[in-house]
Each structure stands twice: as structure tokens, then as C-alpha cells.
Amino acid sequence: MTETMMTLESEITACRKCPRLVAWREEVAQIKRKAYQEEDYWGKPVPGFGDPEAKIMIVGLAPGAHGSNRTGRMFTGDASGDFLYTALHRAGFANQTHPDHIGDGLQLHEVFITAICRCVPPKNRPRVAEIKNCLPWMIAEVDLLSNLQGYVALGKIAFDGIRRLVKMQGIELPSLDFGHNKFYELGEGLPWLLASYHPSQQNTLTGRLDETMFDAIWSRGRALLQK
């Protein structure tokens, strides 16, 4: 990891731009879930992480209350993360299937994982103003990933957030419809966009998203990569 990325991580974890989210993430970290009463929760904004030479940026919604808000690493410590990392492992993008804490040896290959919001929002519903406050962090991460070729948006909020991010960079996009495995070229010199249903239990336990559907995303993403 470059020193510049390390500096950015420090800035992200110190952020207190959104009072509602600051209060909620810290309340969750203090009260805790019964199963994790003996653990110290992270309780701060969660920075992105992954391969500094990443070609794909995976974008989620926000940290889970007792997942990333507990562990301090994106998509770690909950069922959504287990579903994601198992799929990334099958596709050759990760060396583990069920990472659960920082320092567990997880390594990502060609991918970088981040989120539209860095703090857990009440009921997983960030406000528009909170999304706008947080997107500059993602823009900074994009700027540091010099080999980036594409985005994979996990869920509609992530999909819409990427569109908003591109607009913040001064680029107008046509109307884009969210749907599983929908693909868009965003313009010359810009990363492409591939959409997926979010690997939340709301989707995986109901069959809206299954392993075959999710594997298709990562197979397609790999096929799109240029050497």
C-alpha cells in the first residue's frame, strides 16, 4: 500500500462530517450485539482496501452495523461479506472465503473494495446529503488506483452513487437503469460499470441472488479486463 493511500485511510477514519451517522455508529459500537459483547468495535468510518494495482473497484452501500462497523474492514464479519468473499475466492480475486478480522491474512487480487457511505446508517438508509458528504473519499480512492478499468456496483444505492460520483467529476451521463448483470460504458477514459444485486441476506436467503447469478458477475468482470 502506498503512503498516499495510508494517508487517505487516516483521513477517512477521522471523518465526522455527518452528525447522525457519527452518533449511530458510536452507539452501535457501545451497545454491541450480544454475540460480540467481548469484542472492541471499530465504531469509525471504514476505508476501502484491496490491491493497490486493482483493475476493478467493488462498491457496496455502507458498513454493516455488526460487520464492518465492528471489524473496521469492508464486508468483513457478516453474512453479506461471507457470500461476497466466497464468490471472489471462486473467481480468483481473493485468497480466503470467510475473512473475519483485520490481520487474518486476507489478500485481494485485482480488486479494491469500498462503499458509498463509510459509516453504518440507521436501517441501512443513508440520506442524500450523507452520500454527497462521503463521495469525495471514493473519488480520492479512484484517483489513487491508476490501473482501474471498471466498477462493480453491489445494489442500486451503490449504482446510483457511482453515477453521482461521475457527475461530481463534471461528466454527464444518460439515464441508466439498474438491474442484475447490466453493463454500461460510461465514456472514453472512464471505468465501465457492471451492476449486481447486493449480497445481503434479504437477497440471498430469498433466492433473488444465488451463487450462479453472483458468479456470473465476477466471470464477466474478469472477461472485461484488459491485460
The CATH architecture comes to 3-Layer(aba) Sandwich
- Average residue-wise pLDDT: 95
Count of DSSP-assigned helices: 8
Fraction of residues in H or I helices:
25-40%
CATH fold-level label: Uracil-DNA Glycosylase, subunit E
Q: Which structural class should the secondary elements be placed in? A: alpha/beta
As residue ranges, the low-confidence spans are none
Q: What does the largest sheet look like?
A: 6 strands, mixed
| CATH H-tier superfamily | Uracil-DNA glycosylase-like domain
Strand content: 5-15%
For the largest sheet, list the strands in their spatial order: 1-3-2-4-6-5
3D architecture notes:
39% of the residues lie in helices and 11% in strands. Helix 1 (3-13) runs antiparallel to helix 5 (128-144) and helix 4 crosses helix 8 (211-224). The protein is an alpha/beta fold and 227 residues long. The protein has a single domain (3-224), classed as Uracil-DNA Glycosylase, subunit E, CATH 3.40.470.10. The protein contains eight helices and six strands; from the N terminus they run H-H-E-E-H-H-E-H-E-H-E-E-H-H. It has a six-stranded mixed sheet with strand order 1-3-2-4-6-5, with helices on both faces. The model has no long low-confidence stretch (mean pLDDT 95).
